[in-house]
Each structure stands twice: as structure tokens, then as C-alpha cells.
Amino acid sequence: MASALMLSPMHYTAYNSERKQSCGRLLARRGSDIESDGLMSILSEDDDVDSSQQKIMLMNEVSSLESSFMSDGEIDDPKRFNPLLGLYEVAKVLSKNKRENPVGGKWTRKSGLAQKIFRTRKTFQHILPYNSTGLARYDEETAVAEAINVISLDSPDGLLRATVILRGDVVPLSMQELKEMNTNRKQIDLLTNLAVRANFDPPRIFLGKRMLVRPNEFNYIALQIGPVSDVVLDTSFNDKNVRIGMGGTSGTRFIFKRTTDEDAREYASLLQQPLAQKRKLLGIMTSVFAVCNYVAFGNGIKVAVAMSPKSRLLAPLVASLKVANSVVGGLIRLIAGATGLVAGLTALFIAFSNGGIERDGMQVQAEAA
Predict the structure, then answer these.
(1) Could you tell me what percentage of the chain is helix, strand and coil, using 3-state DSSP and rounding each to the nearest 5?
(2) Cα dihedral 83→88→94→99 (10° resolution)
(3) For residue range 79-96, what is the model confidence (pLDDT) as tens digits?
(4) Which of 45, 131, 203, 210 is the most exposed place for a label (fewest CB within 10 A)?
């Protein structure tokens, strides 16, 4: 039975009717009876196959796996989600809309500012047992698991790293919600009893600089910026190798590979980092911007000069004015201008950023959970 991914609109209604009749409540066996080895083989040919050809191959393989997959357990049994638990790396996204960027939002959008400074290093999406991080906002009677979405980016020289983490509580859709959403779905596969709503905290953003004495480690500043968010998502296939997710509103497919990569566990130590006080950090960045502007252009905010004797951070910058007219002074003005620009942009980011969540409904790995 072909998946709706490959069906024309005229055949879609008949397909969904057949699926409901043959699958009933969409229950029974899971990936133990169906193997994803073919899918894994296609993914491993990433460098040898044309991207458009590989997408067609992946869509066909995903369709085949989905057509036979049904979840374990009773329709309202919380244990039906247990086979989904694990650490996953985002392997591929199959979107029908080329303009969509459902994994990473503004952080991974090629035309965005972040990709002009950083390069995407890793993207993970983990499903953990309830409250594994100790940060749950929902009680155990409501939530069945915890979703951890991670985007890790490095600067081209490897000296800087930015990691964005979305932590959320996974709440199954009620039968009423499931019925209402399926009633309104057109040209998209019906949601199953594995459909959930992930309720995310505001994004946590970790900005790090590589340590000189321990080059494999980073010093981080941890921020929590942006609104809370939520998204509906489903699982259309799962086995020992992969989990295929389906966006609850878009129908976009996400292929997640189970992973034992040590980097996949990096989220745990990062979430233990104390969060910087937004107001204090904003004040520091604004002060640095003011002093650097004064040094670079000679007509900055003079109140910064008056503040310098009381600040270890500002005093060295203002003291550099003594050599502003020398040859070295020119270099200092250049450095001050660049530092001021970075400080100013950082201050704007802290003040106005939404954490990478996009206004059109696509957020930081919004549906990839």
C-alpha cells in the first residue's frame, strides 16, 4: 500500500480510507517485524548519489516502511512511547516546501546571519524518559517523555561555538484532539496514537570560546532567550536504527538515526550551566559598546569615561586613549571599532532576540522532535 507521500490528490481520500480500515486504530507491531536496512543504505550513499535522486529514493523507502508500521500497545497506554526513547541525530528532512527550514530555524537558514558567522556542526533530537533533566514543567500524569532538540554550530576557525537547546515536555494528544486534527487534514497522512504535543521552554543558547589550555573544552555563557512554544508531531516508523517523524501540520518527514556519538550527550552538561542574568549581561555589552565607540571615533558617550575608574572592564579600554594619536593608536581604534560592533550586535541580540523561533510557525527544530 503506497504512502500518501507518493499519491496524487485524487487517490488520497481512497488511500486514507483504506488505511483506516486496514490499520483500524493504528496499533499492533512495530519495527521489529520491519527492517530499515534499506533506508540506512541510502543514507550512507550521501556523497555518491545526486541529491534529487537520493530524495526520491528516500521517499520511496519511507513510504514502504510507513505502509507496514503500526505502534505497540493500547491506544491510550503510555508505555506505547517507550520504544521511541533514545538519542538521535537528524539524518535527513523530506519537505514538500523548499522554503521551509524546519530543523534549526534562523540558526541554520543559509541566508541568515548565524550561517555567515557559524557553520552547522551537529543537529540532534532526543526523546528521553520523563524529567530526565530535572527541568520538567508538566507532571508525570500529563507528560510521558522529554524532548531535547540540539543545534551545535562552530565558527570556521573552530575558536567559537554556539549551541542552542530546546527542552520540552512530551504530552500525548487526547482522543478528542486527535479526532479534530484528523478531521481537518487534507493531503496529509492521518495522525496516529503516537501523535504528541511537545511543549518547549524558551530556547537556551550557549555561546562558547575554545580554551587555550584545554583545546577540547569551551568556556560558555548560558542565556535563555525567547518565548515558550509548542508543536504537534507524530512518529510514522521506528525500529532499532531509525525513527521517522512527521510534522503534525506540515506532513514533513524527519529521518532520525539512533546514535552513540559522545557529542549527543553534550546537552546534559550544558543544561547544568547557570544562566546569565539577562539585564546584567545587557548592561555590560552596552557599556563595552559605548567605550569602544569612544576609543574608535573619539566622540563616544563620555559618561563611560567617568565610569571607568569604578570598572575593571572599562578602565583598560579608556586608558588606551593616551596612545590614540600614535601609530599603535590606529590599531587600537581598529580593534575597538570591531569589538564595539560585536558588543553592539550582542546587546541587540540579547534585547530583541526570540531565540531563533521563526514567526511563520517554523522554529528551532520546531517539528523535529
Answers:
(1) 40, 25, 40
(2) 130
(3) 899 999 999 999 998 887
(4) 45
